[in-house]
Structure prediction request, 97 residues.
Amino acid sequence: MTALVAFRRKPSVVACELDGGSVLLDLETSRYFGLNAVGVAVWDMLASPHTTHELCTGILNQFEVPEDRCRPDVERLMEQMLERQLVERAAAAPENA
Prediction:
């Protein structure tokens, strides 16, 4: 997954906070998806378009996780969210903007 691809929340998906995480519900498909605390942080950032690089930077600032583990975990989460149509691709801001 390229760092230049940005993602954002799909408008039909809502989140409900639970103890230590959240559950996402796609109102179009009635499918649920659970998130842990790190997943919730990613979801919160996806209120606006973010690349996987930007998401990893945010996670590294909030959690004690090795950088070499963060990227594959975030990429896997984004792949899962794309497959379940919880997020959509968005235009990434130019790097020098």
In short: The chain has a mean pLDDT of 91.
